[in-house]
């Protein structure tokens, strides 16, 4: 990992991986979509169960992306890892998009199942909303500070603070009595769903994971190029 901290080495290492990761993510996404639409209706939820094939992977990736942002922020703040800030910044926008998708699809599922688009007293819903707000705050903070050094430090601190919310999101359904259903995938006694629903769900989660990896690596590579362009412009401005 530390060997890839060198931007040139990182670019060389990831260049051949990009078409592979993008290609696999697109293929898996197509397969997962086909499995989701060909799965049978649930005896209670009917066709509404198909929303879960989008909602659950999106919510999971929202957490994973913030975990990547938080860990990268730690290395940027403590160890001054050369690519850590770029990795944290690159994870923010796709992470926010996945979290927003989880909130939207959760509301679409909640209306027919709960009779309401939103439940303000539900711990899972509120903690995911807080997660989304951390993403928005991180992006806004980075955009509002012109000094790159100060922006890196302030954003890294905010990224680390937001890590506190991740276990709250994960265990909120266990710690409090909420409308949101408890975990049905990662359980001590195994997944609480039939294979006909488990297969498309796991395939979609794998597709989302590869899609995030592809977007993340592409964004990091773009950030490296952006910083090099800014450095060249600044050097030419000084020479002029």
TrEMBL record:
It is found in: Cell inner membrane; Membrane. The keyword NADP does not apply. It is a multi-pass membrane protein. One of its GO terms (cellular component) is plasma membrane. InterPro entries: Cyt_c_assembly, Cyt_c_biogenesis_CcmC, Cyt_c_biogenesis_CcsA/CcmC. It comes from the Bacteria. One of its GO terms (molecular function) is heme transmembrane transporter activity. The chain crosses the membrane at residues 20-39, 59-79, 91-110, 116-139, 151-173, 193-219. One of its GO terms (biological process) is cytochrome complex assembly. Residues 25-180 form the Cytochrome c assembly protein domain. Pfam families: Cytochrom_C_asm. NCBIfam families: ccmC. Required for the export of heme to the periplasm for the biogenesis of c-type cytochromes. This is Heme exporter protein C. It comes from Brevundimonas alba. The gene is ccmC.
């Amino acid at each position: 990992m530390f060997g890839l901290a060198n931007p040139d080495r990182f670019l060389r290492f990831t260049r051949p991986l990009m078409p592979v990761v993008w290609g696999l993510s697109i293929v898996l996404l197509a397969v997962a979509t086909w499995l989701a639409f060909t799965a049978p209706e649930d005896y209670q939820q009917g066709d509404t169960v198909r929303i879960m094939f989008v909602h659950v992977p999106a919510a999971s990736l929202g957490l994973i992306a913030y975990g990547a942002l938080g860990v990268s922020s730690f290395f940027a703040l403590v160890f001054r890892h050369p690519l850590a800030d770029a990795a944290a910044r690159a994870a923010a926008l796709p992470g926010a998009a996945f979290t927003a998708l989880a909130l939207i699809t959760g509301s679409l599922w909640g209306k027919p199942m709960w009779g309401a688009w939103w439940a303000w007293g539900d711990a899972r819903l509120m903690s995911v909303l807080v997660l989304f707000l951390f993403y928005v705050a991180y992006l806004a903070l980075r955009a509002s500070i012109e000094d790159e050094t100060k922006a890196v430090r302030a954003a890294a601190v905010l990224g680390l603070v937001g890590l506190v919310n991740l276990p709250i999101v994960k265990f909120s359904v266990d710690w409090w009595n909420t409308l949101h259903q408890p975990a049905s995938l990662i359980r001590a006694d195994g997944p609480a769903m039939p294979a006909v629903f488990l297969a498309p769900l796991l395939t979609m989660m794998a597709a989302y994971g590869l899609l995030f990896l592809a977007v993340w690596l592409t964004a990091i590579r773009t950030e490296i190029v952006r910083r090099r362009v800014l450095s060249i412009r600044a050097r030419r401005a000084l020479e002029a």
